[in-house]
Write a sequence for this structure.
């Protein structure tokens, strides 16, 4: 610790954290912007940051109905990996994963990327075959990954139940060594501060309630803080995206369901990798505070309430106790839910629409934390240049009309 930080620590200790510099401004909305982004989750904030940084579009606003990062971005279990099956998906998820490697330096903000390794358990012959196929596809695309056997699973994760008599015994696992976790709030805060520094207005407590059009072109948004004129509206509102673009007369093939997670009381380090056990519907890692971070499958019905069914959590905990018997006496501290936006092929939508100036980025479902940097980068390029970025192009809305689905129902990993 240098002299400056000792003085600053002492000063902050005696002034009770008063007069700290704000990380971003709280501006009132201007009457007109060159572009408006709806939703200050990770995807909306990253889009704003790259629009300003890469495309010099700084007269832009991010409108958020609550507080920034308060949606799924602040509710997820922070797993980062790029082991999807289809080439189009590998391209965007690996772009994102590789951007995560240097994100702390890029934003000068510690996003705590921790490439601690992600293991996806194979507990049936079918799962083993499916993950071998994924591993081959991933290696062909240049990803660093491999299949590992039961002994290596046990070596990497000693607390796992590797008994051959288990209901679903471990037959092996898919392993991505440079997958891992990041700090979800820090990703949102880092992008927010970076975008604000470049001149972007982030306006919280500002709900978009309407979209105006002249003919086939957008002209502005109605909000709880008044009307704002703009010719470019990018909707990045996860489970609420379909309800918002409907205000402009556009329908989306997206369903909204609740995905829940929970954390245990903090304990000493017991697991230093991420384990996903998809057959039994449970996954687990350990946070820096020592809490075990646990999740499972999505609830089985549509929902906008951010509260889920207790039965899903019961099922998840049962699966996890079976996989990690040592956690059976731990107390669970907190549970929560987020509304995730599911498409039929479990792939996202990054798209222009039939309405000129209206862009959508949603459908990340249970897996969009890992994609935030890549998604923001290609979506900003799409908005700035009014044509799809090559990596975004396959994820356009027209794929549903043309039957070019990008089936990721297995790689999405979480049951839904
Ligand atoms: P959000 O962060 O939800 O942001 C959208 C914002 O839009 C919200 O802040 C909302 O308030 C705002 N908004 C909505 N309507 C309006 C309106 N009318 N006006 C203004 N603003 C509006 N992904 C992973 O990759 N790895 C994981 O381990 C993982 N675990 C998960 C665990 C859980 C429990 C959940 C719920 C999700 C998980 N996900 C995971 C998925 C991931 O969290 C999401 O895909 C991702 O955070 C979506 O980010 P976003 O920016 O699109 O949406
Ligand atoms: O996409 O890896 C993922 C994930 C894990 C938990 C929820 N989503």
């Amino acid at each position: 610790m240098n002299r400056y930080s000792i003085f600053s620590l002492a000063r902050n200790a005696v002034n009770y954290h008063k007069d700290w510099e704000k990380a971003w401004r709280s501006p009132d909305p201007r009457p007109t912007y060159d572009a408006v982004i709806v939703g200050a989750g990770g995807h909306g904030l990253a889009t704003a940051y790259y629009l300003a940084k890469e495309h010099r579009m700084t007269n832009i606003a991010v409108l958020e109905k609550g507080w920034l990062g308060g949606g799924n971005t602040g509710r997820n279990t922070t797993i980062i990996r790029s082991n999807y099956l289809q080439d189009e998906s590998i391209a965007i998820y690996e772009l994102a994963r590789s951007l995560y490697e240097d994100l702390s330096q890029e934003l000068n903000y510690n996003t705590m990327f921790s490439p601690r390794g992600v293991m996806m358990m194979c507990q049936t012959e079918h799962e083993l075959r499916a993950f071998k196929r994924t591993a081959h596809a991933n290696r062909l695309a240049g990803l660093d990954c491999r299949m590992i056997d039961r002994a290596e699973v046990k070596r990497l994760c000693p607390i796992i139940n590797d008994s051959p008599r288990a209901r679903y015994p471990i037959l092996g696992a898919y392993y991505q060594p440079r997958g891992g976790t990041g700090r979800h709030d820090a990703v949102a805060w880092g992008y927010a501060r970076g975008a604000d520094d470049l001149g972007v207005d982030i306006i919280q407590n500002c709900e978009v309630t309407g979209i105006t059009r002249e003919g086939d072109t957008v002209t502005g948004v109605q909000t709880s803080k008044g009307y704002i004129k703009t010719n470019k509206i990018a909707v990045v509102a996860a489970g609420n995206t379909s309800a918002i673009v409907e205000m402009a007369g556009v329908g989306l093939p997206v369903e909204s369901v609740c995905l829940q997670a929970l954390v245990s009381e903090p304990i000493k380090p017991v697991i230093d990798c991420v384990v996903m056990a998809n057959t039994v519907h449970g996954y687990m890692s350990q946070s820096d505070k020592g809490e075990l971070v646990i999740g499972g499958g999505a609830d089985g019905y549509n929902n906008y309430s951010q509260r889920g069914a207790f039965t899903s959590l019961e099922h998840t905990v049962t699966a996890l106790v079976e996989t990690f018997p040592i956690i059976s006496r731990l107390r669970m501290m907190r549970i929560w839910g987020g509304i995730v936006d599911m498409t039929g092929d479990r792939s996202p939508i990054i798209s222009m629409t039939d309405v000129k100036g209206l862009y959508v980025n949603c459908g990340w479902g249970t897996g969009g934390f890992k994609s935030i940097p890549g998604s923001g980068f290609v979506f900003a390029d799409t908005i700035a240049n009014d044509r799809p970025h090559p990596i975004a192009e396959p994820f356009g809305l027209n794929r549903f009309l043309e039957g070019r689905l990008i089936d990721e129902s297995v790689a999405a990993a979480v049951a839904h």
